[in-house]
Structures are given as structure tokens and as C-alpha cells.
Amino acid sequence: MSGASKKRVRKEDVATFDECDAGSWECTVCTYRNRFEAFKCEMCDTRKGTSTRKPRLNENVVQMQKVVQNFVVQQQEKAASRYA
């Protein structure tokens, strides 16, 4: 064991995720956490709104999500083939 002492963290000293992000909102389309003042998502331009109407999908966001998903799948397949 090293000479460095371990510092205890009290539960009340740790901020919860909700407390840290109390001044923000999560986009219903891309889940990006936006600043409270923003009236639309900074990533996909979906309006914040409080409407129950389903937001329209931004085709650019959908396409980018497909590209990322395909990349992740390819990387997983490469990793699996190395260990097979």
C-alpha cells in the first residue's frame, strides 16, 4: 500500500446528474443535452416546445445515425473475427 491517503467522498458532496443539468433539456430526437435557453436542439434543430405532436425527423441526423451504427457494427465484427 502506498503512503498516499485515500480521501473519503461523502454522499452529500456528490452532485447528482439531475442537479448538474438542471439548467438544460434533452432533445426528444437525438438525446443531446441542450442549454435551457435554446429553443431548438443545437445538434439536430428539433424545436424544444412542449407540444405533444411528434417532431419531424431531420434526414441529416437520421443519415448520420445510420453511418455511425454501421461503423460500430463493422468494428464489432472485426474485433470478433480477431478472437475467433
Automatic annotation (TrEMBL):
The keyword Ligase does not apply. It comes from Strongylus vulgaris (Blood worm). Residues 21-50 form the RanBP2-type domain. GO terms for cellular component: nucleus. The keyword Acetylation does not apply. Keywords: Metal-binding, Zinc, Zinc-finger. GO terms for molecular function: DNA binding; transcription coregulator activity; zinc ion binding. One of its GO terms (biological process) is positive regulation of DNA-templated transcription. This is RanBP2-type domain-containing protein. PROSITE patterns: ZF_RANBP2_1, ZF_RANBP2_2. PANTHER family: GEO03726P1, RYBP AND YAF2-RELATED.
